[in-house]
Design goal:
- The complex is a heterotrimer of chains A (about 350), B (about 350) and C (about 325).
- Chain A contains nine helices and 17 strands.
- Chain A has about 350 residues and is α+β, with helices and mostly antiparallel strands.
- Chain A has two domains: about 1-65 and about 170-345, Aminopeptidase (3-Layer(aba) Sandwich), CATH 3.40.630.10; about 70-155, Elongation Factor Tu (Ef-tu), domain 3, CATH 2.40.30.
- Chain A is globular.
- In chain A, about 50% of the residues are buried.
- Chain B is an alpha+beta fold and about 350 residues long.
- Chain B has two domains: about 1-65 and about 170-335, Zn peptidases (Aminopeptidase, 3-Layer(aba) Sandwich); about 65-155, Beta Barrel (Elongation Factor Tu (Ef-tu), domain 3), CATH 2.40.30.
- In chain B, strand 4 (about 65-75) and strand 5 (about 80-85) form a beta hairpin.
- In chain B, helix 1 (about 1-10) packs across helix 5 (about 170-185).
- Chain C is built from nine helices and 17 strands.
- Chain C has two domains: about 1-65 and about 160-325, Zn peptidases (Aminopeptidase), CATH 3.40.630; about 65-145, Peptidase M42, domain 2 (Elongation Factor Tu (Ef-tu), domain 3).
- The longest helix of chain C is centred in the middle third of the chain and has 16 residues, at about 160-175.
- Chain C has helices at about 1-10, 20-30, 85-90, 130-135, 160-175, 200-205, 250-265, 280, 310-325, and strands at about 35-40, 45-50, 55-60, 65-70, 75-80, 95, 100-105, 120-125, 145, 150-155, 155-160, 185-190, 210-220, 240, 270, 290-295, 305-310.
- Chain C has about 325 residues and is α+β, with helices and mostly antiparallel strands.
- Classes of the chains: A alpha+beta (about 350), B alpha+beta (about 350), C alpha+beta (about 325).
- The interface between A and B is medium-sized, with 22 and 34 residues.
Chain lengths: ~350, ~350, ~325
């Protein structure tokens, strides 16, 4: 499981450019399910057919494979690259960051900015904006222009590192950890008897507006949706109102975006199996795939399972691996509990 | 009609938990409709077959209201909350609320004016500093009656006052819901799908789903809308004016009215001598935004009842505007061919 | 092309009131298409039948405008925006209503700091001396557009509504020129793009194409001290990489680049940080439609004097024709 995560985060999979990582995920899924489909936008669907017949629900799980990144916007006269962001990048983390520019070759670059001793004290204390930064490839201008063009992708270099206990850090664990959970759910399901048809979808383009979930939910037409994403882990500088403990279980989100009956049912199963769950609340449509799944076609009752993650959208996202196991186990148990009469749970 | 409005307005239906309102609507709509069901996101659809049938008209009013969701219970038993839908945080202090299914009474508190520094008194109190006090002395005591994720609504009676006015919470859009129920008492040439939608206040989500599965030929939305005919507001920002009849919209942030339907609505009012006004503002949005762009497109028009102090526990409406809105839409629907 | 562009930019058609421009475009395309129809929201669709890929080409025919929200006792019109109207772009501009009534836009001069100018403090003066006189000319809900006939500046032209009548002109010319194609082509002149890509959303659902290509204007980075952007006026059509509404499907983008290279058509690559276009709606239709965008570089977008280079338009037509006449494998 850890190896899968480690490999996943080293494969580039920028929103809109997921072909490579989709191929890798499809290969892994193939070992644990009945059928794998990849659509023209590179959403990957791993389908497992349960023991039930047509009257049993089709459950769609979604976790996004795409990652935030940068993109070349312009090449200046001296060969430095100007760039923009794809997805929500905190511009303050960029300085002195090592990046990979995906031009004709993979080029190493450094994010640079005017040095502090050339700035007035008040300018030096202000957060620098992305438009004032550039990337240094250490190459002469002519070489840069041969190798790089406007629209080329720039990803971060930050492999998975093990920390104390079961903690790890690295880039794009948001939401490759979710993709690992999809894979683990499939393995867990093999240990259980279940009736439903399960469609595990590794979605694309979540970071730019849950676009992969819009089209993949339309294609899959599920009866029930389960979105898997990350939420904020506790840190000393953030309010307890906005964060969740790193060691008290996975997080189940409540609010209008989630089906109340199904969410309650999920929590009941957690209690039944004595698995810890934290409860989060969102008063508006969440920023996850659940946002689009719920209103696909004639509506999809949806629940949202989240894993606490510290330093979200940085290169050192930190996660407790135990949560991946418990999330997969709990989701599989929930699916196995969907038996005859499951429609009753969807009542309002 | 006013009795129904009172019942609906006093019921609680914060976005995400429209249950109380849905149950009343199901009870009242079932005897009137040919078919009545709850869809997968929680909308109530009441279908009334037309005398000729064929053309499908979707008429929508939303069941949900703005309110609160409990996000955390403090060690001292106070409830932290988040607003659901667009709420002006200035109005929250010192309001009564009802929390959870069992209607636990609470108040939105803030420290007394005596304890505030002089400059604090002039500042808007941030919603994040507020809490709901239900009288619990500890987290354990609070947890016996409230769970994280429970919804809370304003606690506000329906009161008739002044010259034919009513005051209540949630007139936006229980006024529309009551009008839909009244419309179901009639029959029309066209097939009528009365949709009582969920989740309008957080992004028109119920209507998007309903329009997809109904596949209407024509869309009509009945709303409660802003009415700012107040002393310090310049004339051109009044939006609508109380007592001047139903407001017909040419455009708002979510949709542009189909020109033919707009003209037809105006003509219906004129032909039947029903007072009406044109909504003089394009701010705000409503379910029409999603109905209009559903599948390959649906011609849509919006008619609203003017409501002062909308999105507060004390919104105010003129009962003649309310009745005339029903009358106008009834006449309009009578004129829609099957 | 110049004549066509002048005709299109001179025709009235703000979002929601596209009747006039639709009629003009319909006349232009009728004899070149196998079928022409208007959908429920008002988008005009000209079909060229074929057995190959179903390709939707979209350019929006609506333009930004000023919508009347109130008429005061002295006959001044209060207004709000239809689409992206900046207060500063409309000060003392001449505007025109559908019935030909013209007026000038001004603002409440008691305003202390012009930076605080908002549309709520502005009005249109149509020369009426009373409410009744104004009401005889204009109704609440009527929309005015810039009154700025196209003018020639060297190889370039300026005028209002180049966004996106330039795209409409490119589509009309492409329809006239494209001959040897097996693909089924839908030339869609969409409505209500400026208020949220609404026409493209519904027309794409109705068509359910295999591929979507929209043609719209984009910004440039070639004016004095402009925001940096690697797009120059007159250096060829731009192939979009991304904007706020869509990331061009890599295969559609690559196909465009390949066809441009083969035909020796100059092109630029566009990374637009803000703004969106019809492909934003088209690509999320149904189970997804791989989509790309060909952009026409345009200076001063959303002002009364938008500037384009006719050469960019002509080359955009060439590029589209070669794409449509060859194989489209995605």
């Amino acid at each position: 499981m850890k190896d899968f995560l480690k490999e996943l985060i080293e494969i580039p999979g920028v929103s809109g450019y997921e072909a490579e990582i989709a191929g890798y995920i499809a290969n892994e899924f193939r070992q644990h399910c009945d059928e794998v489909v990849t659509d023209p936008f590179y959403n990957v669907y791993g389908i497992k057919r349960g023991a039930g017949d047509k009257s049993n629900p089709k459950v769609m799980l979604a976790a996004h494979m795409d990652e935030i990144a940068l993109m070349v916007k312009d090449i200046d006269k001296s060969g430095f690259l100007r760039f923009t962001n794809i997805g929500g990048v905190d511009q303050r983390i960029l300085l002195a960051q090592e990046v990979i520019v995906h031009g004709r070759d993979k080029l190493t670059g450094i994010v640079a900015v005017m040095p502090p001793h050339l700035l007035s004290p008040e300018d030096a204390s202000r957060a620098i904006e992305m438009k004032d930064m550039y990337i240094d490839l250490g190459l002469p201008c002519e070489r840069v222009k041969e190798l790089v063009q406007v629209g080329d992708l720039i990803t971060f270099k930050s492999p998975l590192v093990s920390m104390l206990g079961s903690f790890v850090n690295g880039k794009s664990i948001d939401d490759r950890a979710g993709v690992v959970i999809l894979n683990e759910v499939m393995k867990e399901l093999d240990k259980l008897v279940y009736q439903a048809e399960v469609c595990c979808v590794a979605t694309v383009q979540e970071e730019v507006g849950t676009r992969g979930a819009i089209i993949s939910t339309y294609r899959a037409e599920p009866d029930i949706g389960i979105a898997i994403d990350v939420t904020h882990g506790d840190t000393p500088d953030a309010s307890k109102d906005d964060t969740y403990a790193m060691d008290k279980g996975i997080v189940v989100c409540k609010g209008p975006n989630m089906h109340p009956g199904l969410t309650e049912r999920f929590l009941e199963i957690a209690r039944e199996y004595r698995m810890d769950c934290q409860v989060a609340v969102s008063p508006r449509p969440t920023g996850t795939d659940a946002r689009s799944m719920q209103i696909s076609r004639a509506g999809v009752p949806t629940i949202l399972v989240e894993i606490p993650l510290r330093y979200m959208h940085t290169t050192v996202e930190t996660l407790n691996l135990d949560h991946i196991k418990s999330a997969a186990r709990l989701i599989a148990l929930f699916i196995a509990s969907l038996k005859e009469g499951w429609q009753e749970w969807l009542r309002y | 009609m006013v009795e129904v409005l009172k019942r609906l307005a006093e019921a609680r239906g914060v976005t995400g938990n429209e249950n109380e309102v849905r149950d009343i609507i199901l009870e009242l709509a079932r005897p009137l409709a040919d078919e009545c069901y709850v869809d997968r996101i929680g909308n109530v659809i009441a279908k009334k077959k037309g005398s000729k049938g064929g053309r499908k008209v979707m008429i929508a009013a939303h069941m949900d209201e703005i309110g609160f969701i409990i996000s955390r219970i403090s060690d001292n038993g106070m409830l932290r909350f988040l607003p659901v839908g667009g709420i002006d945080q200035r109005i929250l202090v010192s309001k009564r609320v009802l929390v959870g299914k069992d209607r636990v009474p609470g108040v939105i508190g803030v420290k007394a004016i005596h304890l505030q520094e002089p400059d604090e008194r002039r500042k808007v109190i941030n919603q994040k500093q507020m809490y709901i006090d239900i009288g619990a002395r500890s987290r354990e005591e609070a947890e016996k009656v409230v769970k994280i994720g429970d919804y809370a609504s304003f606690d506000s009676d329906f009161v008739c006052f002044g010259d034919n006015k009513v005051k209540s919470k949630a007139l936006d859009d229980r006024a529309g819901c009551s009008i839909l129920l009244e419309l179901l008492k009639d029959t029309y040439e066209c097939d009528l799908y009365a949709c009582f939608t969920v989740q309008e206040e957080i992004g028109l989500r119920g209507a998007e789903v309903a329009a997809y599965h109904i596949e209407p030929d024509l869309g009509l939305v009945v709303e409660g809308t802003t009415c700012a005919d107040l002393p310090d507001v310049p004339d051109h920002l009044h939006t609508t004016r109380m007592g001047k009849g139903p407001a017909i919209s040419f455009m708002d942030n979510s949709s542009i009215a189909n020109k033919d339907l707009f003209k037809r609505m105006v003509k219906t009012a004129e032909d039947n001598s029903i007072p009406y006004q044109i909504k003089e503002n394009v701010a705000g949005g409503n379910d029409a935004g999603r109905i209009q762009t559903s599948r390959s497109g649906v011609p849509t028009v919006v008619v609203s009842v003017p409501c002062r102090y909308i999105h507060s526990p004390s919104s105010v409406m003129d009962l003649d505007d309310f009745k005339n809105t029903h009358l106008l839409i009834q006449k309009f629907l009578k004129g829609v061919e099957g | 092309m110049k004549r066509l562009l002048e005709l299109l930019t001179g025709t009235y058609g703000p979002s929601g009131s596209e009747e006039d421009i639709r009629e003009v475009i319909e006349k232009e395309v009728r004899e070149y298409a196998d079928e022409v129809y208007t959908d429920a929201l008002g988008s005009l669709i000209a079909v060229k039948k074929g057995k190959g890929r179903k390709v939707m080409l979209a350019a929006h025919m609506d333009q930004i405008g000023l919508i009347v929200t109130g008429i005061d006792d002295n006959g001044f019109l209060r207004f709000s925006n239809v689409g992206g109207i900046s207060p500063f772009n409309v000060i003392h501009r001449k505007v025109r209503f559908q019935n030909g009534v013209t007026g000038v836009v001004s603002y409440e001069t008691e305003l202390e700091d012009i930076r605080n100018l908002k549309l709520g403090k502005m009005y249109i003066d149509i020369g009426a001396k009373s409410k009744d006189e104004a009401k005889a000319l204009v109704n609440i809900g009527d929309v005015a557009v810039y009154d700025a006939p196209m003018a020639v500046c060297g190889d370039r032209v300026t005028g209002c509504a180049m966004d996106d009548r330039a795209g409409c002109a490119v589509l009309v010319e492409t329809l006239k020129r494209v001959r040897n194609t097996d693909h089924e082509l839908y030339f869609v002149f969409t409505v209500q793009e400026e208020v949220g890509l609404r026409g493209a959303r519904t027309s794409a659902y109705g068509i359910m194409p295999d591929i979507g290509i929209s043609v719209d204007v984009t910004l440039t980075g070639d004016t004095p001290k402009s925001r940096p952007m690697a797009i120059n006026l007159g250096e060829g059509p731009a192939i979009k990489v991304k904007d706020a509404s869509v990331i061009a499907h890599p295969k559609v983008k690559e196909l465009m680049i390949q066809r441009a290279r083969e035909a020796g058509i100059p092109y630029q690559l566009e990374v637009l940080e803000a703004g969106g276009t019809d492909s934003g709606a088209i690509h999320l239709t149904g189970a997804g439609v791989p989509s790309g965008v060909i952009s026409i570089p345009c200076r001063y977008v959303h002002s009364a004097q938008e500037m384009v280079d006719l050469k960019d338009l002509t080359q955009a037509v060439e590029l589209l024709v070669t794409i449509l006449e060859k194989e489209i494998e995605i």
